[in-house]
Amino acid sequence: MKGIHYRGKRMFLFKVMVVCISIASVDAMEKSNVDSLAQALTRLMEEQTLLEGKLFLFGEGSLKPDYKRAYDLFLRALSHNYGASEACYWLGYMRYEGRGVEEDLGSSLNFFLTATDYIGRDAQMDPLLSASILYATGLLYKIKKNYKRALDFFSLILRFDESEMVLRARRQLARIKPPSEWWQDGSYYEMGTGGKKKDFNEAKKCYEIIAAVECPEQADAWNRLGIFHLGNWGRMMSDYSKAQKYFEKAANQEINLKARAFAFNKLGELFGDDEWIEQDYSKSRYYYEKAANQEIIKERVWAWIELGNYFRDGLGVQQDFGKAKEYYRKAITYGEEMDKGAAYTEFAAILCEKEVERVRKNYGDPVAYYEKMAQQEIDAYARGWAWWQLGGIFADEYRGREIDFRKAREYYKKAAECADPLIKYGVQEEFDRLRSEFASLDNGDRENGSGENV
Predict the structure, then answer these.
(1) HSE (side-chain half, CA atoms, 13 Å) at 433
(2) What CA–CA distance (Å, rounded) separates 356 from 240?
(3) At what angle do helices 127-143 and 164-176 cross, to 10 degrees?
(4) 3-class SS at 398?
(5) Whole-angstrom Cα distance, residue 244 to residue 248?
(6) Residue 145: helix, strand or coil by DSSP?
(7) Are 204 and 237 in contact (CB under 8 A)?
(8) Per-residue DSSP letters for 301-336?
(9) What per-residue string of b and e applies to 1-13 under the rule 16 or more CB within 10 Å gives b?
(10) Predicted model pTM
(11) pLDDT single digits (tens) 71-125
(12) Is the separation of the CB atoms in 423 and 384 below 8 Å?
């Protein structure tokens, strides 16, 4: 409970000297100034009482502690305008520790509660003193097993700026209520559920409490705080350097592997976006590769898609469509439906549209080019790719060519016979889009007795 340190005698003596010199020239002053000087001297004397109390409580140099004199001086300071709140704190401290007086937790708590009455009323009150008073009060309620009141007082400390006392309060809160319950409360505040109003600042406080103690949820809390500091959460101010530090903490621990893999991906995202911190494709790719080597399949799929994008667009590496396709193929093979859709979208964004344009520019009619490619027997993937492109050409208006859904369906069916998962999934995506948009194509399928797939 010590927390609050006393100032030395020298500063006090200097202040007294300044006041005395001022009083020596009092004849030349107006009455209002004389009153001000008198008030200043009174305050200095009150400061002296408090200072002496702390000197006798802890001792200094050759001066040994004298608990009885310290206790009496703090009692005298209770009647002063200045220092009464701090005197209450030290009286409570002495009752708690049993220093020179009988140990009495009830009396100690009463002194601390009296000190809390000054918080908020005294604008000049030291924030560290305020936090120390609240902490001591919460600690005594915890000892008395009144956990609800203890939670209330420890929570009040969280409104102060970051300090060791705030960190200690978070740890106490995590001991009184399990981190799993704080995690649930944080989720409720984020979503506005569980009887709680949506409040991202309260959610952030919950995650900060979890992050202060070693527990299974700690790394998850670091990741949530990292996301919060990226901004756009309840109009919270962004702080990308803090976000990076939180993700690095989660990435460097080895207990929660899921949180670790997620943090690697977020660091990859952070360094890959020039809106956040200094863009560094090399670092970004490094973290995505780390995520791709973790055991958490969802995070591996996310990393594969991003690595595919890097090779697709030549971001910090030489452009390589072949490597891009390998990564996308992995994502589609192992990912869930949403991941597969993301991989397909990224893949098609450049490899479909730009490839068709490249063929048109270099070979003339893309239909003739792809039909020739589809006849070759060497590469099954190339054949499937060619049929897929032909289906896409006839499914959409392409440079004046008429739409022909029958031909598109025929080509998609041939493409679907390719064993490559990237081709199969992409073709099915295209075909499902056509079925939802054009009832005639769906009716044609029914007439021919075909099922839901291509």
Answers:
(1) 13
(2) 40
(3) 20
(4) strand
(5) 6
(6) coil
(7) no
(8) HHHHHHHHHHHHHTSSS---HHHHHHHHHHHHHHS-
(9) bebbebeeeeebe
(10) 0.69
(11) 999 999 888 778 888 999 999 999 999 998 999 999 999 999 999 988 877 666 7
(12) yes
